[in-house]
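Batch manifest line 660
LIGAND: beta-D-glucopyranuronic acid
JOB: complex structure
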Amino acid sequence: CNWEQAWLAYEPIENQKNRKFFESVYTDQNGELVKSALQEIETASEKLFNIQIIKTDDREKAGIRLEIDPTLDLGMEGYEITEENDRIHIRAARVNGLLYGTFRFLLMVSAGKDITGISLQENPQNPIRMLNQWDNIDGSIERGYAGNSFFYENGKVCVTKRITDYARLLCSVGINAISINNVNVRDGAEWLITEKHYNELEQISGIFGKYGISMYLCIDFAAPMTLDGLPCADPLNEEVRNWWEKKCGEIFSRIPNMGGFLVKADSEGRPGPFAYGRNHADGANMLARAVKPYGGTIIWRCFVYNCQQDWRDRRTDRACAGYDNFMPLDGKFDDNVILQIKNGPIDFQVREPVHPLFGGLQHTNQMLEVQIAQEYTGQQIDVCYLVPMWKEVLNFSTGCGKPQDTVADIVSGRTFGQQKCGMAAVANTGKDANWTGHDLAGANLYGFGRLAWNPQISAEEIVQEWISLQISRDSDVKKMISDILLRSREVYEKYTAPLGIGFMVNPAYHYGPNPEGYEYSKWGTYHRADHLAVGVDRSEKGTGYSEQYFEKNAALYRDTESCPENLLLFFHRVPYTYRLRSGKTLIQHIYDSHFEGYADVQKMQRDWNCLEDKIPQHIFQRVKERFMRQAENSREWCDVINSFFYRKSMIPDEMGREIF
Ligand code: BDP
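JOB STATUS: finished
ARTIFACT:
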């Protein structure tokens, strides 16, 4: 079924102007990556134009030419696409570039672009462009909203055609690394890194390898104890070090194309070096030395905080924890360690300030981590196009004192000259036929890849491309759907958690409103609303979080007057009667925002319903059903949050709307 191919559907194309290129293809290369490129060209020409393309040795006559030119100054993954005299020429310095160039060319054709006279040279800006699957070996997915895992079932690793299709999808947007199991390694007796699973893992990594994607595994820091009964997992203990060295020898020899390990340690109950009085650098470097002989990398997450904190202690602040834990270790990590830092200091909320470790860490390899899975942003029931949010993060100027000081500069390696760096994202895919549950959530997966390749592409351009490839090439349809997507995050923010307040969700599950669900819990995510005020003072007079930024941003955030209003309640505790720049009181803004958000959802729903005869029925119906659920959800948020604040403040709505 074509639509199960997401943006590689290659729907038959009416406009035949690009047909002429697809008569024959020539290449002077062989090997697995080129084979993948040729196969993709075959598939595309058959589906788009109903042509069985011929492989030819006649270089001059070929409609498509794939050639290596080592003198091209394009790096390992870059490519050049040119069109001249009705011939397409894809050139690269290495085969990886040929494969990326092929996909880009095919996607342009499939999107209906005119490529006459094209002359395009591209190089990825981020060296590592990675997906993190949070798939468990029992087949479930942590924060998965698109069905079960297609990697595992009942404790077994599965090698299926879907994995090849996934590799094609990811490669087509430039992804070059993937970790295939949950960062919370909780598989008990079913450990991945044992003889039992090597065969399947080898096959899976082979599939990804054909598409230039290296495979990573998440490991449990305590594996020497849990797997082999060692008395401890102390990173400075010789027996432990030997255990990891031997284990890595085994893993890297059995599984080709291994990139290394992704590790969540000393976080949310996961074991780590703290138990032995060691720090994160001790832990990461021990593993880094074990994978080094095989060219491996350790990606170590910075999502570390005390999840057992006392809500009565007003000075403890979860937002401070990442910086407090890792800043003192800057420069202490081996060169094959990368720190992976979430975009914000708390946890993937609809709006958070940018993590202060960006720009702070100057002597440590680092990657940005975002969440494509919509855990806190609608769980792929509500529409929420996340590319605009990621672009805000990438464009944030850290003020770190270097001429190139944005997050995009830093994670690409431009600022501090790093090679091992880039972007990672928690995947939003599962067994659902459309991959992402909500069809429109496909734009987030596609968008992440495109953005990781080139952070300069606009959110609008990405969404237009994606709609042409996956839903329709019709320009009216593209306009309507992109309008919906481009406003969706703001709408979501309006009816859930405006002004940076965050975390008013149902605990554990994280969908739907529950204003005090986390308020008196140990997880450290508080809004501290009482009858007079709401928000957390994170200025130097409060928890001091604002002081983790360089002065330019610290000055902006620490003062209520200069603080960007969309982050006001993140940084400040503000009375309900406080006047915002609009002239409205804080409480009135909260009421209005929720009503508006709900009304906006109904408008999006009406807009969607106008598409009934213009797009494939199955997509139309599935999304229509999701919009019905989103309308209900936004109504509930509006009612519950407004009632909560009305009852706290007892200040009535100026517009006299019903709030109970
Ligand atoms: C939180 C999720 C939790 C993850 C954690 C993480 O709620 O399921 O394990 O992040 O990133 O957002 O490790």
